[in-house]
Amino acid sequence: MAYQTVGKALPRVDALDKATGSAIYTGDIHVPRMLHGKVLLSPLSHAHIAHIDVSRALRLPGVRGVITEHDTLGVRLGPLLRDQPVIATGKVRFRGEYVAAVAATDPDIAEEALDLIQVEYEEMPAVFDPLEAMKPEAPIIHEDLLSYAINFKTARYGNVCTHVKIHHGDMAQGWAEADLVFEERFQTPAVHQGYIEPHTSLASVDPSGKVTAWTTVKGAFRARQELSQALKIPMSQVRVITPYLGGDFGGKGSAALEPLASLLARRTGRPVRMELSWRQEFACVHPRHPSLIEMKVGIKRDGTLVALEGRVVLDSGAYADTGPRVVGKTAALQGVYRIPHVRLDGYCVYTNKTSFGNCRAPGSPQVVFAMESMMETMANSLGMDPVDLRLKNAFVDGDISPTGQKLHNLSIRQALERAAEVSRWRERPKKEGIGWGMACGEWHSGTGPSSAALKMNEDGTAVLITGAVEHGSGTHTTLVQIASEVLGLPMSSISRNYSDTDATPYEGPSGASRQTFTAGLTVKMAAENVRSQLLERAADQLEAKADDLELVNGQVRVKGSPEKAVAISSLVMSKGKGPLIGSASQDRLMPATDPSYTEGIAGTSFLGHTYASQVAQVEVDRETGDIRVLRLVAAQDVGQVINPLGVEGQIQGGAASGLGFALTERITFDGGRVTNDSLMDYRMPTAVDVPNIEPSIIEELDDDGPFGAKSVGELPYVPVAAAIANAIWDAVGVRVTDLPITPEKVLRALKSGEAAGQ
Amino acid sequence: MAYQTVGKALPRVDALDKATGSAIYTGDIHVPRMLHGKVLLSPLSHAHIAHIDVSRALRLPGVRGVITEHDTLGVRLGPLLRDQPVIATGKVRFRGEYVAAVAATDPDIAEEALDLIQVEYEEMPAVFDPLEAMKPEAPIIHEDLLSYAINFKTARYGNVCTHVKIHHGDMAQGWAEADLVFEERFQTPAVHQGYIEPHTSLASVDPSGKVTAWTTVKGAFRARQELSQALKIPMSQVRVITPYLGGDFGGKGSAALEPLASLLARRTGRPVRMELSWRQEFACVHPRHPSLIEMKVGIKRDGTLVALEGRVVLDSGAYADTGPRVVGKTAALQGVYRIPHVRLDGYCVYTNKTSFGNCRAPGSPQVVFAMESMMETMANSLGMDPVDLRLKNAFVDGDISPTGQKLHNLSIRQALERAAEVSRWRERPKKEGIGWGMACGEWHSGTGPSSAALKMNEDGTAVLITGAVEHGSGTHTTLVQIASEVLGLPMSSISRNYSDTDATPYEGPSGASRQTFTAGLTVKMAAENVRSQLLERAADQLEAKADDLELVNGQVRVKGSPEKAVAISSLVMSKGKGPLIGSASQDRLMPATDPSYTEGIAGTSFLGHTYASQVAQVEVDRETGDIRVLRLVAAQDVGQVINPLGVEGQIQGGAASGLGFALTERITFDGGRVTNDSLMDYRMPTAVDVPNIEPSIIEELDDDGPFGAKSVGELPYVPVAAAIANAIWDAVGVRVTDLPITPEKVLRALKSGEAAGQ
Lengths: 758, 758
Hints:
2 copies of one chain form a homodimer.
Chain A: H1 15-19, E1 35-41, E2 47-53, H2 55-59, E3 63-67, E4 76-77, E5 84-85, E6 91-92, E7 98-104, H3 107-116, E8 118-123, H4 130-133, E9 155-157, E10 160-168, H5 171-177, E11 180-188, E12 200-205, E13 211-215, H6 220-231, E14 238-242, H7 258-268, E15 272-275, H8 278-284, E16 291-299, E17 305-317, H9 323-326, E18 341-350, H10 364-382, H11 386-393, H12 412-423, E19 434-445, E20 450-456, E21 462-466, H13 475-487, E22 494-496, E23 499-500, H14 515-542, E24 549-552, E25 555-558, E26 561-567, H15 569-572, E27 581-586, E28 598-599, E29 607-620, E30 627-637, H16 644-663, E31 669-670, E32 673-674, E33 692-698, H17 720-732, H18 743-755
Parallel strand pairs in A: 1-15, 13-14, 17-18, 21-22, 30-33
Antiparallel strand pairs in A: 1-7, 2-6, 2-8, 3-7, 4-5, 9-10, 10-18, 10-28, 11-16, 12-13, 12-15, 14-23, 16-17, 19-29, 20-21, 20-27, 24-25, 25-26, 29-30, 31-32
């Protein structure tokens, strides 16, 4: 279909703001009388708090208030399982947990005051390895696990906060049908999301007790809910404003500093601003879940997959955060393949480490790394081309997903074939030290409650009122582009604002790949509502039927008779009708799933399924183990492209981040202590590390997305590690099963292979 | 009808903010890199600008930019007649007109820079008296009057920017029927609105050119329109935010500093804040129009009014501002009385003074002072009680208003009788030096485009999103109270925000007594929209019909079966429907009028007519002329009371302000120069000057207002001056016809009476 705006490579609506440095972030906001807050982190991984004495801190000149467990009203927070006290209460469960916070007139004074807080701890035995934590004799981290509120059904016991099951088919039959069985154990580390703006919050309390918080959160409305819970006040007494966000990638979904800053503001009667240092970012926020994946696959000689058994253990850290949902991605161990007999068990297990959480496509890159490594190993054993093995087993329309959802409108084949074609996979030359690897992955497009409004201005321009947080992905550009298309107005005629729970309609967080697919649909609906009101008003004036009218270039005109036209501006305030404003609200019902497939999984069905396939080409230095990624072809189905610049940027950015997961990134722990807690020691890929990433866009339209659009941003991360691991294996015959694939590991494997006489 | 919230004396929603000083006003807002702007005012009343040299000002360290006529793109602004350049262009028309503006890093530097701007003027003959200005030989103030855009039809010639006519009946017949004819000439001065916050604006321009202005204006959307015109940019490039306003009373309707601050911000690339000093407030903003009223009334011996001829001349000052509409209140010279033969001419005339504008009930107190003085004079001559004379002539249902509108649902009689009854008018004793006076007045309830939204929060609390500016009258309290009534929620569960053109639906200015009557109706409609959505959602859950449900205490329940109930909070995000948001938009069509009655009048029909009658009791000291107001009874029809505290406050505040108009307030001019330009020299009544004002509320419900409410705030000002003048006349036999009635005037009249041998 021919669109005016949709599908065009138009500049971002925030381009000038960002390029000139005038975009406002939370850290740019200063208010009169503002204090500076600092938080004291636990130095121990597991300990009773016997006593806290804040009196010396309070006596330090400039200190205005200190809060501890006694100020938190016993509230526990958590997006799924409410297990985390606002400040450690009674005991600490990880090194880095909040123990107290101070507000002072100056950040240095606040910092100094932290040293004056005396905490007596009684250390307790700690456990850091989730497998150890699962043992009956392990120290129990949450003694009252079953008392915590949770909004879906899941098994909980010992240190296991969630145990999910995906069991279907008959394993005995599966193994019996298998000609070959492959077994492997994979491990993936904790990795940071890599946003460039640390968590920052500024909270102010008015005399009625109403809290206003400016904060770095990707979901203003979720943050409002958490603040309402944390402070035990109704939502009408909480206002959350989210200016531009300096990246999120999953890491800015949960309350971080908002409750502390608000409690300090309430205590001191003055606004309080807090931010985490990078050292604290590593110590106490929510990196990607480390995982252990044990799997066994049964396959026939002709390449037909018949059985899969697996155990996925996610390290949840000290609190659940989003783990109970992320562990559901254990299902992704089955990949995009039809397997009749499956028995997967996923565990989200508490340990005495920082609590892990969402990171771009949470849960999926871990298990896809495992399965897609296996696929290439099996193809090699069977003497099949890996593309063919994948094509042979890929889901087809009508198949049932691992979580029991009937699949339709799939684009797996297109993604596989496109990646093979663009990379010239079938003609790949065999060269010493050069390897090719492929992998594919699946993601979906997020849904959930969404609403938006669109106001017409008296001069025919418009204001889009959306609560969608612009976290850097280009959401606002996409949304304005959609409104522009529907209204036939140039994008420059549509202004928009940032998310403010007192001003913008409810919108879910900018996560789960939901903004284009869901917020975009709502904006489209709101714009259509405005459009139909404009046509109705014009119909009166033009003495025509609304159906015979069209909206072009700021005018409503009679189709076929462009001279019969009326300016939009003359319709906005038409007498007797009032100012023109449109709104839309939606929350799509999810497709039914077969409940016999799963147990304990929070989300079993999805809309807007989408697929990506990537081909990596690497060069490995046998002397040093050094790995150079020469090329990464990233084919991906995104449905209707709204803005190709945005789509390509998301694919390149996601794949670059996946490259870090594959090769360099890992938060290292010594017990519960992070040992590389700086951006110097924690190595994200830089410009010199990232190869040319070649996006190749597939547009299989989706019935549920706006104009047929699907999600983009999370999926490109998913297949990278497996594609690179497969390419390294192709290059030098080394199969590394624990990420990141460092030169040391490759070298060690090469050496031990040589020693074994290969 | 029994209401839960409406009609209750509940505390203001902004009470704590204001009592604790934490309410944010424009002057409280500071942004990083902010510059301070100052404006240079013309020292002459009428002059060509031969040359402006800003080079010395620009060289002053700290000065960042200067703007003059060359930076204004030739734009002329004006709410009705676009006659006023943003900065004086080519010539100055009054002493105080903007000639240049400077932005500097410090207000003192900006002030100093003003002195360095060299302006060469060529002085022109000026005219200060409107009667002089109407003469053919008068200097012409606007040479190109007919070229100015105006959005309604009016005669314009010479220095007359508007000439309105109200002619009906047959004057010859009228004078023939009259037994007695009374003639008088009245004069009223320029008075300041008396807000306590001077005009302040802060403007910022982003790299795309979008302007954000925080400003002291009572209509954010009107200010947006003016800024869009002034800066020649679309409305989507303008955002106007209006925090709390420190009073308005009509004086904050037109662009004051916003265009200057914006142009300076654009010039310097930095935010610019400006505020007027009180001296400047008197020199260049829009006080109430001075008026000259010549009138002749014909009456029969039985007290029947039969003829009225009059000429009302309003001094417009150098620009039209709202004068072309205000002069339409010439119609109010007829008062609330049926007069078959009328010939009124109203003139709005340019002079070389600051341009005059809206002030509480613009136009009406001037002419009502005249007519209601006449009524009591006539009653005395006829030997009738003034109440009886008024009752005899008062309009009845079905009568035609002076502007040709058929009247219905009148409450004139109730107001007259109530004032008489409460004051014990009929039993008033006759005492030396003590006098009683009565007057009555009419006002209407403002209409125009209005929209609002109301969002439900997930916990069942709500956010009202209104663009109605809280200028101090209690608008937000009224609006929240209305929403609270409809939704059955406590007021504390409904938060609201301040007007922001990028966030709030379009709302007209907080003027023309429109906020309760019009914004209130819209909020009621939006709340009803939310209510019906809640009932529909509940109907599904309760398996009942929506019509059988009611909303009580945060629950929807089946009428008669309160145990069948569902919490509102469970309906807000109900799956499949999306977040609950309601909105409403309206602009009522006005009743038709007989066009033969009037010519050149901008507004000839009104909704929500309302009436007030006041009785004043004064004591006059024959030795000093000193006047002490002992008592003021203010009976007023307000329709359904929303909040009695608010209604009483408005009546008392309005009457207190009217007291200043009657007795103390007057901006004095020496030619074009204001000679009492400070709050020390310009005397508003203070606490010691204001007597006990006794409101007496009449509730005649109105079909068009929310719950039957009408307007309150402007009308109480209207009758005060006449009531007091009549009381003084009753006390000492002195009829003062020019306001304010100072002791000097009374004494002079007493002395000249004595000299004449009385």
